[in-house]
Amino acid sequence: MVYQFVFPDSELCTPFYLDFCHHAHDGHLLAVGDEDGRTTLLRTDKDNNADNAEYHHSFYCHKHPITDIKWSHNDTMLLTSATDRLVRLWDVEVQTSLAEFSGHDDIVKSVNWHPSNEHLIVTGSKDGSYRVWDTRFNQRPAADPNDLTRIPVYNPIKVVPDAHKTMIPRGGKRTGPRPQRIRSVTCAMFLNKSEDKIISSGSTDGSIKVWDIRHGRTPFVIASTTFATETGNTRGITDMKLDSSGQRLFSSCMDNHVYMHYLSDLSKPAQKFSDPDYKIGGFDTRISLSPDDRFLLSGSLNKGLFVWEVDHPNAKAQQFEGHSEKVTGVSWNKTSMFQFASCSEDFNTRIWNFEF
Questions:
Q1: Angle 292-298-301 (CA atoms, 0-180°, nearest 5)?
Q2: Which residues on neighbouring strands pair with residue 202, listed in sequence order?
Q3: In the structure, how many helices (H) and strands (E) does the chain have?
Q4: Residue-wise pLDDT tens digits, 38-63
Q5: How far apart are CA 299 and CA 346, in angstroms?
Q6: Separation CA 219–CA 198 (nearest Å)
C-alpha cells in the first residue's frame, strides 16, 4: 500500500519519520510525521481506498517539519519533535496537546520514552545537548493560573551540554586545545529500565557514549566507542536501536555500515552489517528491528530498503524496491514479523509485506 500527503494548496508533502504503535488495533496503527508539521494515523490492516478513509486521521502537531515521532507504551499518547525546537505530547484519542517541552536551542533530532516510566523522556538535539524531562516536575508557572486552556510547559530536569564535543590542537603561538564547533546529538535514549543511564550518539565525533546521570552529581561517561576510518577520520552515527533484551545495541553509521555492540563491551562491534548497494544518505536515515530481534531494517540513499538477518551479518541483505528517492524513516510492526513501513523523499509512505 502507498500513501501520499499534501499541503493545503494540494502540493505533495514529504513524510519524514514514522512509528508503529505497540498493541492498539493489534499493532496495525502507524503514526507518520511530515513536512507540514502533521501527524497522520494510518490503519495498516485496512486498504488505502476511499471506503476506508474513516480509519485514517491527520492532525497538526507543529508549524514546522516533524523530526521524530514515538508512541507511548500504552498507545494513548504520542511524542513529536520538529524543527521549531519543541517537543510536544499528544492525546491520540482526542488529538490534542497535553504538554510542551521547551528549552533546546536548535532542532530536536530524537525523542524517546523511558521503557517503563512514561513520566520520563529524553531528547537529543542539534544544539549538542541531550535533556531529560519528567512530567511530574519542573512545570513552568502559568502566567494566568485561571487560564484552564493553557497547555503545561516543562523545563528539563537534567541538561548535558556539549555531549559530543571534541577538542582539536590550537595552531599558532597559543597553546592548548580549543573546542570544535557544536556537535549534534543524533540520538539519545535510556539504557534499559535504568532512570539514571543514558546512551547518546554524535553526528561527527563518531562516538556512542553511555552516561551516568544520577541526581546530585555531574553526568559522566562510563563507556564509549568511536567509529573512525583507517586514517582516523570519524564517521557520525545516524540512529540507534536496542534489542528487546536491552543487551545489544545497533547503530547506523555514515561509513555505510550498521554495527551491533554488546553493551557489556562497547570497545569493539560484535557484528557489522553492510551490502555493496547500501549507502546512507544522511543523518535522517533510520533503522528498525523486527519484533523478535531476528531482522534488521534500514532506509538508504539507494531508494531501497535493506533487511539483514541478525545472526548472519555476512550474508547479502534482502532489498525492497519501490521508492524513487532516498528512504529516510523506517518502522517494523511491533506485533507482526510480516509488515514494516517506510517513507521517502519521493513523497510516498509505503507499507510492505515481508516473507522469509
A1: 170
A2: 185
A3: 0, 32
A4: 999 999 999 888 888 899 999 999 99
A5: 13
A6: 10
